[in-house]
# Entry
Amino acid sequence: MPSVTAEDTLLDTAVAAIGGAPREGQVRMAEAVARSIRTGAHLAVQAGTGTGKSLAYLVPAVEHAVRSGSTVVVSTSTIALQRQLIDRDLPRLADALEKRLGRRPEFAMLKGRRNYLCLHRLDSGPDEDEEPEALFDPFAASATERAVRRLREWAEQTTTGDRDELVPGVADKAWRQVSVTARECLGQRCSLFTECWAEKARGAAGRADIVVTNHSLLAIDALESAQVLPEHEVVIVDEAHDLVDRVTSAATAELTGAMVSTAVRRCGRLIDEATVDRLGEAGDAVAALLGEQPSGRLDVLPSALGNSLAALRDAAKACLDAFGPARKEEQDAATARKIALALLDDMHETAERMLRAFDAELGERFDVVWCTNDGERPAVLRIAPLTVSGLLRERLFGQSTTILASATLALGGSFEPLAKQWGLPAERPPAEPDPGTSTEKPAPSDVDTLRWTSLDVGSPFEHSSHGILYVAKHLPAPGRDGTPPPVLEELADLVDAAGGRTLGLFSSMRAAKAAAEYLRDKTELPILCQGEDSTGQLVRKFSEDPCTCLFGTLSLWQGVDVPGPSLQLVVLDRIPFPRPDDPLFSARQRSVDARGGNGFLTVAATHAALLIAQGTGRLLRTVDDRGVIAVLDPRFATARYSGFLRSSLPPYWPTSDPTVARAALHRLDKAAG
# Structure
């Protein structure tokens, strides 16, 4: 065990208070986090399931916040972890450390403004200019009305106004009637400002030692010029494997005909008719052209679409100008004005960004533009950054000491693949502090580059004796014509051997449904499939009945935590590479190739390795769990990149013999009873 330090003593106090036991990996991680905070060097730490990583970063974070009087931001990817931190981990930690630290640590949760009930919107009633959906679907309209009435009743009871505390939830359509974005908010001009739930949350966050937020708000804080999060010097990014995707999503914008129609309705009685008509005509032209545009990435902007985008941009700017400077007016009128201005500003910026994206040569572009047109829903034109590494390097790592933590960060046995996506340079040890100073942080220098270290503290699980990695080398390689019959037969044999207890992770919903239908014809075991109920309900049914199987796609790869005998077999139907025609991934891969790199390995294989590591991590959730991971894609053992994928996983016991895998599952089924 490492030497006992002050951080270890606090950690021991916390662990003892919750009835836990000391873990070497947890102690090593806590020491590394404390060192990172002291020296200012960023840290990427991989801590396997069961390490207790939340306490390992919370203890030094709380100690630093209380001793220094500063705020530490903790960002997570999932609501489940946010709730765990706020409802369980931090209250218990505050109880345990209050006496040792001299006062009780304070903590708060902060989300984007759209997540909180707006009392003014609730008071002023629904938008009159909302889409008159009753003309097309009276059932949808009545459902929205019922949901809004329920929200009014909930508003009398809630103590936070937080949408996530409304159970069951409501559709986005209803929630939009009672919430506002940051751009739409009246701010201090609102008569209900002092009662505002979002402002109360911001106030609590400003007073807290630890602020728990999400990656999306962390991204918005980096993207926006206005400060969103409280002043802070330290950020801890848990579930850091998801950071790039969440930041990319926050930086993605879109244009649709419906957006323009909504803007026209919102502007209708606020500015002159001719200017509004100009916007409507430009929107109609864009919508018509998008309806004819096939789905896919746009490497060249069609001249007609470019002209229409320019017309839309200019029309939106004309509407913005027509509003003139802010003026004193009734609150309802001020709200209508703010909402209209926010949408116009968003459309103007997005159209301008899309046009600007094509100014540079193909290999020098920063953004990717693509059209989604499936023929069933109105077409959408989207734009996203080719990479967010520069943004993260400048606005996250350049501003705060950052600790990145996850069970999955080392891909192909190295932190470098994800470090490149984060914008971090090649790993170098942190600079030694000047012995003449009183701080461990090195003095600023014009030649300084970002310094960071990595650490893999392992896992308390004995993967080689508790888990089998079975790769079905004898099966045919996946094709484009659905799941081959031999793969479905293999799946049925494995499920039968396991007596159910199976989580099937599929690369597409079509494949998941086909497998569910096939198994239902072959077995009497209950087969659940994603989409047949809410994901939460499906996972609950799956965990309560060991004979049940659950099949699904992406959200199940990362969102299932079912310890015990209900889950003893995890099946991957194929390596989850991004689709070859995915606009963003294909553009990123092409960009790497153009610079002399290996685009497939850097982009596609890294994406697949991350998902595989997350998906297979569903198997062992406690030290007592046992089971089999079955990969029904022979490429996982035979392709040239298979070594990179396998080295992204813990050291499970490997086999390609189906009889060995089935025999192990039979034994586990029998032992579980």
The chain has four domains: 6-109+199-248+389-433+446-456, 117-195, 253-385, 463-672. The longest strand covers residues 367-372.
